[in-house]
Every structure is written in structure tokens, then in C-alpha cells.
Amino acid sequence: MSLARRLDHEALALQRQGELGLWLPCWGQEAAQVGSVSALQDTDYVFPSYREHAAALVRGISPTELLTQWRGATHAGWDPKNYNFHFYSLVLGTQTLHATGYAMGAVLDGGDQVVAAYFGDGAASQGDVSEAFNWAAAQNLPVLFFCQNNQWAISTPTSLQYRTPVHERAAGFGVRSFYVDGNDALAVHAVTTEAADIVRRGEGPALVEAVTFRMAGHSTSDDPTKYRAPEELAAWEAKDPVKRLRTLLEATARTRRGSPPSRRRSKSSDWRCDAPAGPSKPPSSTISSIRRTRIRTAS
Ligand SMILES: Cc1ncc(C[n+]2csc(CCOP(=O)(O)OP(=O)(O)O)c2C)c(N)n1
Ligand SMILES: [Mg+2]
Questions:
Q1: Does residue 53 line the site of ligand 1, with CB under 6 A?
Q2: The pTM is what?
Q3: Pairing state of beta strands 152-153 and 115-120?
Q4: Does residue 155 register a pLDDT over 80?
Q5: DSSP 155
Q6: By CB count within 10 A, which of 16, 17, 62, 99 is most buried?
């Protein structure tokens, strides 16, 4: 979670320096992503949307691989087969149908693979998503739908998007549905584990709607101050998922050891140099070791 937050900072700076064409931050959604993807098995297949950087890092995709696509140096920065993590999908909601079709293949192959599809509250208004709910339920397919309800679809708030919440809509299609505080990494992990178990047992698709908040702009081309009240951001900053988990870990460590844990802060210079260098350069061992250390600490 901390690495994803740091990556967002770096990517925003790189975009402002002209090194990246665009970046869509996952700032504020780290608990929803890390809590959920860490509840899956490595053999499960993930279809992300375009903002799942924290989930991608957990899967082992490097910051370099994530950045190269947004630098315009490649169509996609990684080979999905290496991580069971598909390319980003920018056409809203399409990945839910890709996941549903993939799940049909998984059933034919046998085994107990879970196919996860990440999408947003706005994407849920696309017909593709309703089709995916319906077909996955009708065919009893092993799809785990994961909706990050971050309150906004660019400048459109959820109050203007729909009358029925996503988890209730999915339930109407026959998809077992869960609703969770998406800024609580442990709660997301617990709920996603239960939902994935249902799917893995062959009991059909499930959906988790995680309530969270996109703390930065939609993308580096967006200025959220034009449409969002500062009070709304302040209210969600008080529920910042990274700070919440850090508070919990520190309190736990204090209880166990009687003193606060020491914090090692990685310097951005530890790995930033590798990021803008181009598509073919492999991640440095420094990046890999920081990633392993920090993800294990945070999740
Ligand atoms: C089919 C389609 N329609 C419109 C767009 C333009 N668009 C890109 S992102 C976005 C908002 C998506 O909001 P949400 O699904 O809530 O995801 P978030 O960006 O909040 O993570 C829109 C309308 C698109 N990419 N694809
Ligand atoms: Mg949204």
C-alpha cells in the first residue's frame, strides 16, 4: 500500500515533467486493492480496469512495467501470463465480459480457478457489466466481481449515476453480493476471502462492493477542485487507508513489544531512476527488494 502511494507521487511528478503522457492515480484505494488481491491465489486470474496499480504491485508487476504504458512506450507494460494479471482495460466495463468469457474457459479446463474482474462505480452503468452479471449467474461461472465505489466517475458523483447500489443490482441478477468498508484493508481481505471461497467452491459468481474514495484527480488531465468540495476530500482524508493501517500496525506493535516500531522510509531515489528509462529495461534488484519488503510490511 505504501509503495503504491509512493508510486502515485512519483508518477504524478513524472507526468508533470513530461516523462509520462498520462497517469491515473489509485491514491486512496490502496486498501481496497491490496486487501482484495491478496485474498486470491496466485493461480487466480485478474482482469483489472486502469487504476489497479496497488493490485498489480502485489502481483509482482514492477513500477517500471506499470509506467512504460503511460509513457507511451508500449501497448502494455507486462506479459499477463507472467502474473495472471491482464492488461489494463480503458473501455469501461469491457473487462467484466472478458472475465466472464475467460471463466467459461476455466470451467471447461477444470480446476478451481477464480477469475476476478475489477471495475468502478461509473463502469457499473455500462450495459457490459449487467450482461456479465447476468451471464456469470446464469452459467454459474467462477467470476469474482470487485467494484471499487470511489464515489466519482470523473466529475459525476454516484448520486447522479444510479438509484440502486451496485451490490443490490448484482444480487438482482443472482450474484452473491457483499458490501464492505473499502478503506479497511483487513475487512476487505476478510470479505474477499469469503467471496472467493464461494466462487472457488463452484457456487457461482460473487461480487464485493468496496466503498472507498479517489483522493486525487481522475487522471493527470483532471482538476477535481472544479467539481468536488474541499470538505468531502477532508472527510475522506480522515479515513486514509494507508494511515489507518499504519495506525493499527503501530498500535499492535506497541501492545506486543511495549514500544513503537522503527520505520524505515525508502527514498524515492532508491528506485525512481529505473522508472522513466524505457520499456525494455528490467526492474532493478533494488526495486524488487523494496517491493517485497514494503508490501509484506503493509498488507
Ligand atoms: C465505454 C466508455 N465510456 C466512457 C469512457 C470515458 N471514461 C473514462 S473513465 C470514466 C469514469 C469511470 O468511472 P468509474 O468506473 O467509477 O472508475 P474510476 O475512474 O472512478 O476508477 C469515463 C466516463 C470510457 N473510457 N469508456
Ligand atoms: Mg469511480
A1: no
A2: 0.88
A3: unpaired
A4: yes
A5: T
A6: 99
